[in-house]
Amino acid sequence: MENTVAKPSTFSVGLKWGLISTLIHIVVFLALALLGENPFNEIVGYISMLVVTPLIYVLAHKAFKDAGDGFMTYGQGVLIAFFIALAGTILGFVFTYIYLNFVDTNLMDRHLQELTEKLSEKNTPENQIEMTIQVTRDYFWLFYVGGGIFVGVLIGLIVTIFTQKKNPEPTF
């Protein structure tokens, strides 16, 4: 009789690591907001996108392989990344929406003012500044959700290239 290892599901691993990712992002968001800094700062976004998210994916992929048979296909890795991005974006959306609408209702206005000042420093024409602010205000949540999932999956596509481990024996 063959000894088989029960593999965890891509959904369960993605959900778990999506929760972990969300908690990390909430802690950073709150720390910045409480220190009077802009949690929507570009530098924070770049650090999250280039360091935190790939690290979360690597750890999630490792957990998937360790809890199963030691292997993970490219498709499984991308699916785990998708579930992390989906869970993290939805949970982050709920947190951010509550924070912006009930805790610090002026944070978005401060962010838009900061954006206006940066654009003015770059000698951006006034009509472009107004249009940028209006688009940001009107489509913030769409960019938040759509962009979060899109960028998360894109990073997952790249990370999985390096973390996949194909089973050399065909499974039937």
Percent range for β-strand residues? under 5%
Distance between the termini: 16 Å
Query: SSE order in H/E notation?
Result: HHHHH
Number of domains: 1
Explain what this protein looks like in three dimensions.
This protein is an all-alpha fold. The protein has one domain (10-163). Helices cover 78% and strands 0% of the residues. It has helices at residues 10-34, 42-67, 74-103, 107-121, 126-163. α4 (107-121) crosses α5 (126-163). The longest helix is centred in the C-terminal third of the chain and has 38 residues, at 126-163.
Give the topology.
Blueprint: H1 10-34, H2 42-67, H3 74-103, H4 107-121, H5 126-163
Features:
5 helices
What's a concise summary of this model?
By secondary structure, the chain is mainly α.
